Amino acid sequence: MIVVKLGGSVASNVKEILSVLQSLHEDILIVPGGWIFADLVRKIDIDDEHAHWMAILAMEQYGYYISSFGVKRIKPKDFDEIKVKGVRVLLPYELLINHDELPHSWDVTSDSIAVWIASKLKADKVVKLTNVDGIILNGKLVERIQASKLVGIETCLDSFAPKLMVEYGIDTFICNGHFASRVKDYITKGRAKGTLVEGR
Question: CA–CA separation, 72 vs 168, rounded Å?
Answer without folding.
Answer: 28
